[in-house]
Design brief:
Elements (H helix, E strand, L loop, with lengths): L2 H12 L8 H6 L3 H17 L4 H20 L11 H5 L3 E6 L2 E6 H5 L17 H9 L1 H15 L5 H9 L3 H16 L7 H10 L17 H25 L3 E9 L5 E10 L7 E10 L5 H15 L6 E6 L3 H4 L5 H8 L4 E4 L1 H14 L2 H18 L2 H13 L17 H22 L4 H7 L2 H24 L7 H18 L12 H7 L4 E5 L4 E6 L14 H6 L8 H22 L3 H5 L13 H17 L17 H18 L5 H8 L3 H6 L1 H12 L5 H13 L9 H13 L8 H11 L8
Helix pairs in contact: 1-4, 8-9, 10-12, 10-34, 12-33, 12-34, 13-15, 16-21, 16-25, 18-19, 19-21, 21-22, 22-25, 27-28, 32-33
Length: 762
């Protein structure tokens, strides 16, 4: 071993370094850039020369003496030069200066750059941070760019070389951005970012940083920067598309999160591709509001419109949940918006309206509310006892019924009531057996065997099951507004056919018809494959008013609410269905607005030309009733539509659409003609009307779903998430495309331009 190696081994033992600790690993992790740097370093040594072994012996002895003296000092501690730095910073060299060791930069010294690393005597601050700071400096980058320029023999401007050095690790930065993007799309906590980066680095994933230093962008702060920049990029794309769309509509709803903070969520519906693409519904913004008053909501809403650069004249419709703060005549959000846009179309969410109609009809018949009380009682009785739950599951297996959990009615969920009643009807045979076998619940067993209660349970299972189908149609993400009236008419027709025809009463129902058949003899038998397991005799008595939470006057009268005969139950059902149908019709007075979409749906065109022209004229007049502010009135009024021009284009447009897209729906026909330049030139006004109808929202279902997403992201363990972070996480999770469809170079540019960055070698 040479004298030089012996000295290095001695110093290594003093500082606890292991011989050969990084040599093999360094070679295995060597990248083309490091190989190039090593080549540059070798040429630098050839140019500047290297110290001889004797000189190195003298310098090392001096280092040893300084180390020995410093080790004896108790109070003052001096920093020392670490030989490991030579492997990490290949441009580094050390010299003697005034009985001290100083650090020099080979690049800066070669090109005589001003400063201690170049022309001066060297940097005497023996710290790792000093090396990192110098490597980030423009002086070092300039010197390195000059060296690369001389080495490659190419003539490039110095700024281009500096830019090349800064962007050398662009792919690694983008790789870490993709990690943050994955965390957001999977609704994970950003605190998992560091662990996931470490896992990918240990798995030797390509283009990942080689270490987890603070400067390698694998820390939590870098993850937050990436999340904000990705969200900003997606927001910029959305703003650009909305400004290019000729019309847009908004959906607004307010709610309270887990930490009791009030938020306003806004969704936008617009046409993609400058008005020639399909309608798109996207999350727009999550704002905080001080209270739920209409003026407060309007101020937040108005600020959002101004910041985005949107214009009220292009705002066609606003959809809300129908709360007084939204649609109040004096202080509601809509009343303030109509001051900016007089004839703005306001839509009350169809899913909310359907749920309110069902609730209104049920409130008028207290007997049905008592049935819901029994359903919740059964839930608490079973779910609060693991023993009863196990007994129920065992009994279900014996009588060959699928093992299902008892559900609880939630008043804030649209489909909850119907799902609970249907589940209860399926589990009723086993529940009756459990109630019979337990002495403490004998009173509830007697109540459950009342014929009228069982009748109402099975009747509600059929009615609410059909209404749930209607609600599911209203909750579709791509609901077509023209189908709303049709779906409502089908539901009303089905209920009328089931329960309002005495000669065929309940014949086509799923649950009530089976109950009427099984209970003809006055009891319900529960059987397995071979024998009867249990028999429950029905009680044909009336329900006492004291058992029902109705008015005090009715309780005091002690008058029976319903008799225990099938005829009385049938009469109650007919009254309930009639009340329900009336409530649905009252809640949907604006079906004509949704029906005007049939004007652009060839599948609804009559075969006869006269009827087709008559219907199209009626539909377009209904549409203009809601778009009066867009109709030209005089020469000085700038409007989007001209009634005379629209009527002149109407019949040729309908005839052409019928011939070209016979049997097509509105959106299917739009796919065919949206990019046809001839149609836009021939029927400019009708094509604009088509664009308007495509952007009209039918509900606030998207807002309701996003509040659920908000609670998933901001769960109990992440309750301290700020509004800006929550908004960014929701935007990436909801609007973010597949990672392969993201323009990562654009995201990188947003991140780089956010502030002055000096990217280190990763």
């Amino acid at each position: 071993m040479s004298q030089k190696r012996k000295i290095q081994a001695t110093i290594g033992e003093m500082y606890g370094w292991t011989k050969g600790q990084t040599s093999k690993a360094q070679k295995n992790l060597e990248t083309p850039q490091e190989t190039h740097n090593a080549h540059v370093e070798q040429q630098l040594h050839e140019i500047f020369g290297s110290s001889s072994d004797d000189d190195l012996d003298e310098e090392t002895n001096e280092v040893d003496e300084e180390v020995a003296n410093n080790s004896k000092m108790k109070v003052q501690t001096k920093r020392h030069f670490c030989m490991e730095w030579l492997d990490k910073f290949l441009w580094l060299n050390y010299v003697r200066c005034d009985d001290k060791i100083a650090m020099k930069c080979n690049y800066c010294e070669k090109y005589r750059m001003n400063g201690p690393w170049g022309l001066w005597n060297g940097c005497t601050t023996l710290q790792h941070d000093a090396l990192v700071t110098h490597e980030k400096s423009l002086v070092h980058k300039d010197a390195k760019a000059r060296w690369i320029n001389a080495l490659e023999g190419k003539i490039k401007p110095i700024p281009d070389h500096i830019r090349q050095v800064e962007d050398a690790n662009k792919e690694m930065v983008i790789s870490t951005m993709k990690v943050a993007y994955f965390i957001c799309q999977e609704d994970l906590s950003p605190s998992n970012y560091e662990k996931l980066c470490k896992f990918l680095m240990d798995a030797k994933t390509p283009y990942m940083p080689k270490s987890q230093d603070y400067s390698s962008y694998t820390n939590r702060k870098s993850a937050n920067d990436f999340i904000y920049c990705i969200s900003k990029h997606l927001e910029q794309i959305q703003i650009k598309n909305m400004l290019e769309s000729p019309f847009f509509s908004l959906m607004v709803d307010e709610s309270t999160d887990r930490t009791l903070e009030q938020h306003l969520v806004v969704y936008a519906t617009y046409l993609d591709s400058k008005g020639l693409g399909p309608p798109i519904s996207q999350f727009m913004k999550l704002n905080d509001i001080v209270d739920g008053k209409g003026k407060t909501i309007y101020d937040s809403f108005n600020q959002l419109i101004d910041v985005r650069g949107l214009e009220y004249k292009n705002l066609i419709a606003v959809s809300t949940d129908g709360a007084s703060a939204m649609i109040g005549h004096e202080n509601g959000l809509v009343s303030f918006l109509k001051k900016n846009n007089p004839n703005l179309i306001t839509v009350h969410c169809v899913a909310h309206r359907e749920s309110l109609a069902v609730a209104d009809a049920s409130k008028k018949i207290p007997e049905l509310l008592y049935v819901e009380k029994i359903a919740n009682k059964v839930y608490s009785w079973v779910q609060n006892s693991p023993k009863r739950n196990n007994e129920l599951n065992d009994l279900l297996r014996v009588i060959q019924i699928d093992v299902l959990d008892v559900l609880q009615i939630h008043s804030v969920r649209w489909l909850s009531r119907g799902e609970v009643i249907i589940r209860l009807v399926k589990l009723m045979p086993a529940i009756l057996t459990l109630l019979k076998n337990e002495k403490k619940t004998s009173s509830w067993y007697d109540k459950a065997r009342i014929y009228s209660i069982q009748y109402c349970l099975h009747m509600l299972a059929d009615v609410l099951g059909e209404l749930n189908k209607l609600n599911m149609t209203f909750q579709e993400e791509t609901v077509d507004i023209k189908t709303i009236g049709l779906a409502l008419e089908v539901t009303i027709s089905t209920l009328s056919r089931w329960f309002l025809r005495k000669e065929t009463f309940a014949e086509d129902t799923i649950y009530l018809s089976k109950f009427l058949s099984d209970s003809q003899n006055g009891y319900i038998d529960i059987k397995d494959e071979e024998t009867m397991v249990e028999r429950h005799e029905l009680r044909y008595i009336s329900i006492s008013a004291m058992d029902i939470e109705s008015s005090e006057a009715r309780k005091q009268s002690m008058k029976p609410c319903i008799e225990g005969t099938q005829e009385s139950c049938q009469k109650l059902t007919e009254g309930y269905i009639e009340t329900l149908i009336d409530s649905l019709n009252e809640r949907f007075p604006d079906l004509h607005l949704f029906n005007v979409a049939k004007l652009f749906s060839p599948c609804y065109y009559p075969e006869e030309r006269r009827n087709r022209e008559k219907n199209s004229e009626r539909w377009i007049l209904k549409l203009f009733q809601h778009l009066q502010h867009t109709i030209s009135r005089d020469a000085g009024f700038v409007a989007l539509f001209d009634v005379k021009s629209c009527k002149r284009e109407l019949h040729p447009f309908v005839d052409s659409l019928n011939l070209a897209c016979e049997g097509f729906s509105m959106k299917e026909a739009w796919k065919v003609f949206r990019n046809t330049e001839q149609w836009h030139k021939t029927y400019p006004n009708m094509m604009k009307l088509w664009q308007v109808v495509l952007t009209i929202p039918a509900s606030t279902v998207d807002c309701e779903r996003r509040f659920s997403k908000q609670n998933i992201i901001k769960d109990i363990r992440k309750s301290r998430l700020g509004l800006d972070t929550l908004d960014a996480l929701m935007r990436i999770s909801l609007n973010g495309p597949e990672p392969s469809n993201v323009d990562w170079h654009a995201v990188y540019k947003v991140w780089k331009d956010t502030k002055s960055r000096r990217i280190l070698e990763l």
